């Protein structure tokens, strides 16, 4: 097989990035609405100290998080032509999505105020709390590794 043109690789990369940024807005809007609704229903101020995701909604939110992972995997599978490319596009989508998610949260909520703010990262299998810089750093590594893989595996 021949090699995919550099233009084709960059076009796929641009489409995956655009999809990831748009999907991040959808996810940030979910958090925006949840914070508003939970704030009213539970009189929450959303400080990490003592907050636990309301159990009545936990299974629903875990299902949404699982669906998010499926969608990120699907975009990688659809964009890549080889298994390495599929992996690369998946981690690219994940990394861009996660960074854009925090950027959208800042636009919508003016939060996080710093990369040191603690966040509830995932609810699967349980609550994962960490400073925002942890997922942002991991996402930067994902993006860098994805670009390296795509530059070395441009086979059609």
Textual characterization of the structure:
The chain is mainly alpha-helical and 156 residues long. It has one domain (6-152). Helix content is 70%, strand content 6%. The chain is built from 4 helices and 2 strands; from the N terminus they run H-H-H-E-E-H. The chain has helices at 6-42, 55-79, 83-109, 133-152, and strands spanning 118-122, 128-131. The chain has a two-stranded antiparallel sheet. Strand 1 and strand 2 form a beta hairpin. Helix 1 packs across helix 3 (83-109) and helix 2 (55-79) packs across helix 3 (83-109). The N and C termini lie close together (6 Å).
Shape: elongated
The largest sheet has its strands arranged as 1-2
How far is the N terminus from the C terminus? 6 Å
Order of H and E elements: HHHEEH
Q: Please indicate the count of domains.
A: 1
Main pleated sheet: 2 strands, antiparallel
């Amino acid at each position: 097989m021949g090699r995919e043109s550099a233009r084709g690789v960059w076009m796929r990369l641009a489409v995956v990035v655009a999809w990831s940024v748009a999907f991040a807005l959808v996810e940030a809007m979910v958090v925006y609405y949840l914070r508003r609704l939970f704030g009213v229903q539970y009189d929450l101020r959303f400080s990490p100290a003592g907050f636990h995701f309301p159990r009545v909604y936990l299974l629903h939110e875990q299902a949404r998080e699982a669906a998010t992972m499926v969608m990120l995997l699907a975009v990688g599978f659809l964009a890549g032509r080889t298994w390495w490319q599929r992996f690369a596009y998946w981690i690219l989508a994940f990394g861009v999505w996660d960074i854009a998610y925090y950027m959208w949260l800042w636009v919508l909520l003016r939060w996080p105020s710093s990369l040191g703010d603690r966040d509830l990262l995932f609810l699967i299998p349980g609550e994962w709390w960490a400073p925002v810089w942890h997922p942002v750093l991991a996402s930067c590594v994902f993006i860098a590794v994805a670009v390296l893989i795509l530059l070395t595996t441009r086979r059609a």
